[in-house]
Amino acid sequence: MDMPSKMQPPNDILNSKTFCSALSDCRRPVDQANSLPAACYHSDEILQYEKETIFHNNWLGLGRADRFKEAGQYETLEIADVSLILIRDRDAKLHAFNNACRHRGARLLEGDGKCRAIRCPFHCWNYSVDGRLVAAPHMEDTRDFHHETSGLVEFELKIHAGFIFACFSPDPPNFERHIGDFDQLHSPWPLESLVSTRRIRFENDCNWKLFLDVFNEYYHLPYVHPDSINDVYKKPDAGDRTSGAYASQFGETEGTGGLLAAEQAHTLPPIPGLRGRNSRGTRYTWVFPNMTFAASTEAMWIYEAYPLGPRKCAVYQTMCFPQQSVDLPDFEARVRYYYERFDAAVEEDRIALENQQRGFNSPFTLPGRYCVGLEPNVSGFANWYAEQFQ
Ligand code: FES
Ligand SMILES: [Fe+2]
Q1: Ligand 1 lined by 120 (C-beta under 6 Å)
Q2: Inter-residue contact 76 to 110 (CB < 8 Å)
Q3: Which ligand sits closest to the CA of 119?
Q4: Which pLDDT tens digit goes with each residue over 269-284?
Q5: Are 111 and 104 in contact (CB under 8 A)?
Q6: pLDDT tens, position by position, 295-317
Q7: Measured in angstroms, how far is the CA atom of residue 194 from the centroid of ligand 2?
């Protein structure tokens, strides 16, 4: 790729020939593809485009459905300028609402918790947990005002394999096409039945895509995680050919990918039903754009990444185990070794990611090439992402 002869003005990246040609260089098989241009990792203009095009129009992976156990249990998520309420109603149905009052727009809920109704803190309009407006004080004289048409704005939501997917667009893309052959490829793992045992949030000073990139590649393991987890991972299989908006790669492990190399003696029982090579390795999957997970021998771990700015992101991590393991009397003591492994790896990745972000902040950083065997998921995402700009 040629160096740009003249830097483009910062508000015109999307129309620049250099940027468009750099994106088209991502739309090739991994052995021929370039990585994404640096602007995708530092530019306000690109982030704005991502919000409007990628986040507001696609199915987003929002973690596991089983964390909403009771009626009225909710969590708010800040996603690309949209504040979202996920809440379970009295019939156990999960809803995704715009977190803004239908009166004059005030934010309704913060953080997570449990409520009997959603009450606006501004003028006290009250909504039921299924989104209906049930009370609005002193509104009798307002003509043609109807409770029935003043409920919360609701987004499309689907639960698939135990994962929540939502789409902000009133005209969402076809979900079956989005998922493609996901079920077939993941059929050895009983994904739907796995139980969430920990969900944590943290922030990283890097672009949201960088977090997902590093989770999905084996290349950095010996250099970023030499003493913690590198010895566990063997050379992975080639990346899978997939249909649908996701990439996936399986690799065998020496012991489990869920524990530090030095703590393999603390393995919990295997996921029931896993056979052959699937019982000796981990499948890393990235469901585009923002959710990734690893289905392993006795656990599954999931990350969702959301932009907080071009150079900052929020990440949620969820750990899941089979019910049989969660029911063990000493589960709480044994699962701590798993949490310790993830805390250690996340911290090692954080240092590498903040360093990588500093390199990507320069407008003179050029796209690179991929290691074919170790970075196919990263290339698969870049290919899909570049397509969203066409
Ligand atoms: S903005 Fe919510 S009741 Fe007025
Ligand atoms: Fe890592």
Answers
A1: yes
A2: yes
A3: 1
A4: 999 999 999 999 999 9
A5: no
A6: 999 999 999 999 999 999 999 99
A7: 23
